[in-house]
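Could you help me review a protein record that somebody else here produced? My question to you is simply how this chain folds and whether the tokens agree. Thanks in advance; the entry in question is below:
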Amino acid sequence: MGEVASGGGCCPPMDLFRSEPMQLVQLIIPIESAHRTVSYLGDLGLLQFKDLNAEKSPFQRTYATQIKRCGEMARKLRFFKEQMLKAGVSPKNSLGHVDLNIDDLDVKLTDIEVELTEMNANGEKLQRTYNELVEYKLVLQKAGEFFQSAQSRAIEQQREYESHQLSGESMETPLLQDQELLGDSGKPVKLGFLAGLVPREKSQAFERILFRATRGNVFLRQAVVEDPVIDPVSGEKTEKNVFVVFYAGEKAKAKILKICDAFGADRYPFAEELGKQAQMIKEVSGRLSELKTTIDAGSLHRGSLLQTIGAQFEQWNLLVRKEKSVYHTLNMLSLDVTKKCLVAEGWSPIFATKQIQDALERAAIDSNSQVGTIFQVLQTREMPPTYFRTNKVTSSFQGIIDSYGVAKYQEANPTVYTIVTFPFLFAVMFGDWGHGICLLLAALYFIIREKKLSSQKLDDITEMTFGGRYVIMLMALFSIYTGLIYNEFFSVPFELFGPSAYACHDLSCSDATTSGLVKVRHTYPFGVDPVWHGTRSELPFLNSLKMKMSILLGVAQMNLGIIMSYCNALFFRNNVNVWFQFIPQMIFLNALFGYLSLLIIVKWCTGSQADLYHIMIYMFLSPADDLGENQLFVGQKYLQMTLLLLALVAVPWMLLPKPFILKIQHQARHGDESYTALQTTEESLQVESNHDSHGHEEFEFSEVFVHQLIHTIEFVLGAVSNTASYLRLWALSLAHSELSSVFYEKVLVLAWGYNNVIILIVGIVVFVFATVGVLLVMETLSAFLHALRLHWVEFQNKFYEGDGYKFHPFSFALLDEEEE
């Protein structure tokens, strides 16, 4: 809602005080131009459609098939985006126009999906084959080494045996050697073997299970593969060992095969002859080089396809989202009896009438429709939506108000005053022009990098800070202003506007008091005189100043709230609220706390020593007593008695007349309605459909009276509690000042006094982190929340109902926000 149609020369000047005047319009659209009409209205973004098919489920609506097709196209686009992210291809923000219509795009996306899916499947198959061949080559190399070493050992043993035969028997020759050799040669044993790779982490368990399953009747050899290999099944890099298992018998083989499957060991065929092994290695190397070339060519082709998709992805995505939103909107329209027209109803600002009519006319011409869209304004008693045209500066403040509640249609908008009062009340609590400059620099960083940051995906806290960059800027500027008034720069005073008005003419003032100070110059021209800082009188002086200032600001803002209620009553022509709400409330608040504000100003101007606590307490306890030394002006006692009497009269004035007047008005309205002229059928239906909850409900006098009683009690007690609530301005300002002073004196000044560079550096680092972490982050958040409470509770409850609903137009410009 914030910035919808905020630009353009066709719009009247921005007015935030009242929401835009709205109208309920009806469109009768020929079915052949319906799609283009809704699309043009989406480009315009100034019409909020009503759902005329609320009783139907999504599957029963007219354009359910088209929405399903758009959803399928969106799924394909998400698939393309996932593939691009995996390949490291980023979609390009192209500003070109898409020439395709939605049907051609659907065909194109289907073709691309089929092609890409096929390429992925072929690529995965080739990559798996390549990984298997890599493992096969490793098995051939490592297992070949086993056989070569075994063969070389066998040749050595044969030679050794022959040499023993030639030299004859000796005393060292074993007696059974000949018989064993003869026996072995007479019964040759044929051993089988299996070769493959097993994950290294499972190799020891694999060896133990083999030994136990075959009862030790196997011979296992393993060799470590130095580099991790890509597993053909999982596709992940895994550390593996090459193994060769020798066994005897088919039963042992069956057991070994099952164990290999259980441990995920990949088996590969292996020839016993060395010549065949060399030939197989050569063949495998040749196939690997061929596969590598094929995979590289496929990857290149797939990359070029993804680049082509990335160049137009954003355009396709936008087109699909637009089409889906158009059909969603068309499903909100009701089909005419003749099934040749669609009937739409919706809210639009009155200023947009000409723009909407122009869009309808263009849609009819562009779709070659024989009949144009009929545009007519409907009369209704239904509450219109609330629409404020804001810009990037005012939208943040409007968001603060909307968080409390959306303004009722054409209700006075607190945002107009909040733009100034919110940062000012924040600054009263955060008054330090050094801290204000730090906040301003942070806000300017976000404002200068506005375009870049707005196009990036930010985390939640940064996004929130970036959204309120102009609020922070105004808070910083007001903090600099109030900091100059308080004369505090990181709690240090400066004589910026001239020398102090006081000088030390007595030795007693050397003890950090003001007893020996004498005024020797004109009053310090702007803000607090720097001589007060660091003295024993500083805290009582600043406490008195800030406490009284808080009351003055609070009473002024509460009066503004009551005046806003008068503006609302005047605008809605509610004379009852003017006479029996606004006037007694103004009298009650100002008879007590307006009078207190007057006393504060008079005391400041006259320099009187009167005790204001005593005056206010005894104004209620004994109003007829003389004030004595607490009298500030002539006739003060009689003024107090008059104000007290007015405050007492204002309470029944608020409570009693309004319920009786509302009852009389209700009876008169229903009495008149019995004799009103007959309405046309259309008018009577319109009134009955929209007036059930207003005109014909029973008037419960007791309910209205209790409501007015609660409202009166709430205002009377709230006048006291709300005024006291504004003292948080004084409390938080004092806390901020004292924290800043502690960090400066107990960290920075203390570290400086040691005359040690390391201690000084540590002190500066601690001071910076304490200032940023506590004063610039926690204190900023604390003051922000307190200012928020003062506006939501103390200010807005005087006039703001906040029971409206936002204007949500059908707009293509809002598609990004809805997607997020």
Observations:
- The chain is about 60% helix and 10% strand.
